Structure formats: C-alpha cells, structure tokens
Amino acid sequence: MPKRILEKSALEISRLRVDGSHAVGGVTGLYLRVVGGSRSWVFRYVHGSHRRNMGLGSYPLVGLAEAREAARAALKLRASGIDPLQARQTQREAARLATARQMRFDDAAEAFIREHEATWRSLKHAQQWRSTLATYAHPHIGHLQVEDINQAQVLRVLAPIWKTKTETASRLRGRIEQVLDWATVYGHRTGPNPARWRSQLEHILADPNKLAPVQHHAAVPVAQLPDTYRRLLTMEGTSACALRFLILTAARSGEVRGMVWSEVDLEAGVWTVPAERMKANKEHRVPLSSQALELLRTQPCTPMVDHVFPSNRRGPLSDMAFTALMRRHALGAVPHGFRSTFRDWAGEMTHHPRDAVELCLAHAIDNKTEAAYRRGDMLEKRAAVMQDWAGYAVSMAPQPAREAR
Fold it and tell me: How far is 135 from 152, CA to CA, in rounded Å?
C-alpha cells in the first residue's frame, strides 16, 4: 500500500505511477485515484448503510488544496445528516432547471406570436404585434430574461408614450402582459405579472379612456342615408356598386370585398359568408332584399373571375377602395359607419326585435343563457328587417318609369 500523500508537490503527484486509490492526509475520506495516466480526486464516506464515492474532479484541473476544501465541505454536510452526493445532484438539477427556464423577452414574444398567429384573422395582425413590440418594448426589455422583468421596467416602456400615443401604448401593455403570462405558464417566470392593468398599473398610469376617449366610426345620420344612397347611384365603377351593396346588407367592408359568386344563392336570396371571413369566425347567412338581388343581377359574371366586385386586376377590391371613394365625394363618413346608421335606423324608426337586428349585424347575443339554447339564426325575421332597411335606403332613388297602359 503506498504511503499517505501529505504535502506532495504537483510534480510528485504527476509522477505517481501506482494504480489504485491513495489516501490524502489532512482530510478523512479524501483519496487520489490513479488509473494509468489519469488521476482524479474521490471523497469516500458512509451514509446510512451505504458506502458512497463522490468524485471531486480530475488532477491537475483540480489541485490538492481545492480537493481538500471540497472534501471538508462534504464532511460538514455529512456531519449534518445530509448526503453530500445527493446534495450535489440536487444542486446541479436546480441549476439545470434554472438554465432551462431562462428566456429573453424578445424570444418569448416571438414564440408567443408563432403559437397564436394561426388563430388570428390576418397576417396584418401578426405584423402589428411584431412591429409594436420591436419599436417600443424590445429596446428596453427585449434583452432581459422574462424572470427578471419587473414593474419599473414595464413602466419604462409605457410611460414615454402613454399620454402621447395612448391607444398604441394601451395595446402594447396588453401584448406585454400576454407574453409574460405565456412565459409564466411555460415555467420561464414566477410571480405576478408586472404588466397587468387591473389592481396594478391602473393605480399608476392614467385611465387611457380619459386620456383618449374612444372615437366611434364616422357615420351618415339616419335622415341623410337615402340622399347618400341616391348620390352613390350617380357614381360609376365597381367600388360605388360594392359600397351600395354594403349599405343594403349592413355588412363589413372585408366581407363585401372578398365576396365570391359561390357564396351567393340568387334563387334563395341568401348570401352565405364563410366562417374564415367573419369577425366571429362563424358562418353567417345574409338575407338579400329585392334591391340587393337586383344589384347582384346587374353585376357581370366574367369567366375566370370569382369575386362579385373585382378590382381591375381581377382580384378583390383593396381595403382602401371604399374609404377613398367616400373621401373623394365628401360623403362625410367611413364605410363601417353604415352599420351604425343601420343600427340607429332599426332602433329609432322600427319595431323589429332587437335580437334580429343584432344578428343582421352578425353580433353575438348578449344573454349567454339564451344564446346557448338558440340554434336558429332568425333568417326569416332578418329578411323582413333587411327588406325594410333597403326600402328606406332607396327611398330617394329615381324610380323606373312605368309603362303606359
């Protein structure tokens, strides 16, 4: 058995050629294991009824002094009733988990967008997410680990634009909150969300609704609608025709611009908008008034063109087609405002059931219990609403001359 190693120099240890474990003086249980040309430190101890070997590193990467220090630390754990090897494994696992949890905010934001963009209605929505976060959030917190982001850092993002770009800042806050909530669910952070509004940021930042009150879409007053429709009749072009159809159906701009002939049943007088083109992501049947059907029958059906109101390039009209038309002719409103005009007309000038009117606008029923039991879409009642609405809209339009008897 080789003699005990006491204070051998590095040179003497490296020259040791006898294979086996050599006890190291100064610390009970510390050995230098020699196998061929390799040397490593081992701490041997008994925990309960089990003999344990705890590696402390290879020589010369770990020197004698370091090996003794590590062995003494292990002895203290053992004296406290703790298994040093198990304690080290627990520590390493905790470090591994901590590393696995780490994620920068900009990486978390991109991961969140990738997971959710397939459920969003348009590519534009995902682009807006990336743009606002890249412009306002990433310069301040993009490089930070999501675990380390606190309220002060969120405020550094929001405060500079909260009063000057209130709507953008409010949306940005919500997006940061969603990203941090996502990171929490996936185990990348713990604790309360520093971007949450209720019971948190609402006590620090001014109410965005008071800073920038919601601006409703400019709408044509109910009394002026017939004259507006009459003016549209004098305008040529597909955009004017499509805008008249939008008024007659109280539909959204995108629904009309994307309309294709396969969605229309002229015989039944119904236009079925597929779920993927509806805001609520639910198929919607639109009853067509006699005026709407007459308008569609005047639209040319061109081979190889699917859209009912095609652009010059044979695709759908651009998203600015209606707005540009209304600005050019100073109609004093926006396309979406005609839905408000329809709602005002129905509430102020008719006795049609409120639910039927809301369904004409493809709105959900407020009463969730009633909505859960209702399976129909009130098509017949809505047909009556839309026919009355069309009759009012065209009431100032020139009437075709009657033939003499």
Answer: 19
